Amino acid sequence: MDGMDMGSSTSSSSHSMSTSMTMTFKNTHDTPLFSNTWTPSSSGAFAGTCIFLIVLAIIDRCLIAFKAVMEQHWLATHLNRRYVTVAGKNTESGNLDTDPDAKLASLITAQGVEESVKVVHNLSRGPIPWRFSVDLPRALLFLCIAGVSYLLMLAVMTMNVGYFCSVLGGAFLGELAVGRFIHWPEHGH
């Protein structure tokens, strides 16, 4: 008998736990956002919270677009980095003479004399070498994007219909505004 009682109590507690963990959307205006202190107490406060989520989702898309633009800038800077030979150094001079991609250019020295030099552009397709001036801002941008994205995820996980629609609406508006900067067409340079 004791074994049966234990089994029935276990099944009833697991049944009550499964019903309390059911994931369903709710349409209440008093759902806390991020903490219990941020619980809208009126329809106006709920609307303000939804507007905040819309703006936060737009900021998320803007940060992603800004990172994409900066990635293009960092790549262009890397590819346009110029390598100029210095008189007396023959480490690169032999390579410049045989490089078909080297272009003749003029360089004005400190004395104002114009010399004929070759400027070589880096055409490598590999990853950009690690540079503190590029990788620190890249990591900070990613940190901001991840933080904002996780806040939006937490808002959606409240299962509140208003919060969910606000995040979707903000993502739509953000993509509408800056989506063209995120998706760069591939060119065969």
TrEMBL record:
Record-annotated membrane-spanning stretches = 45-66, 139-155
Q: Which UniProt keywords apply?
A: Copper, Copper transport, Ion transport, Membrane, Transmembrane, Transmembrane helix, Transport
User: What are the annotated GO cellular component locations?
Assistant: plasma membrane
Q: Which GO terms describe its molecular function?
A: copper ion transmembrane transporter activity
According to its record, how does it sit in the membrane?
A: Multi-pass membrane protein
Q: Which domain of life is it from?
A: Eukaryota
Give its localization.
Membrane
Q: Which family does it belong to?
A: Belongs to the copper transporter (Ctr) (TC 1.A.56) family. SLC31A subfamily.
Name of the protein described by the UniProt record:
Copper transport protein
